Amino acid sequence: MTKAGKARSTKLCQIRCVRSPSHLSDISDRWLDCEEALEPAFQDLVALAEGAGWKVLEITLALQSLADCHMLAQAANGETDRQIAELLRVRRR
Known about the structure:
Helices cover about 75% and strands about 0% of the residues. The longest helix is centred in the C-terminal third of the chain and has 37 residues, at about 55-90. By secondary structure, it is an all-alpha fold. It has 3 helices and no strands. The protein has 2 domains: about 1-55; about 55-93. The termini are far apart. Helix 1 packs antiparallel against helix 2. The protein is extended.
């Protein structure tokens, strides 16, 4: 990494906080509110990765992969929870 890259990376080692939801209820576009709340931290993360020497395409692909893996893990965890609950119900009979 170049000196300039190290300097930029050092400056960007802090990612901004994410604000709380503007709407407490389950409105149809609440995900847009979440996207707006995440964007500053997301931009900080991309800048941090760029400062470390990663290319924008590499960063984008990595973030997409991480998001996909996170969704799959959430689904798998939900299914595991469902199976455990079912086994406990059967066992209590």
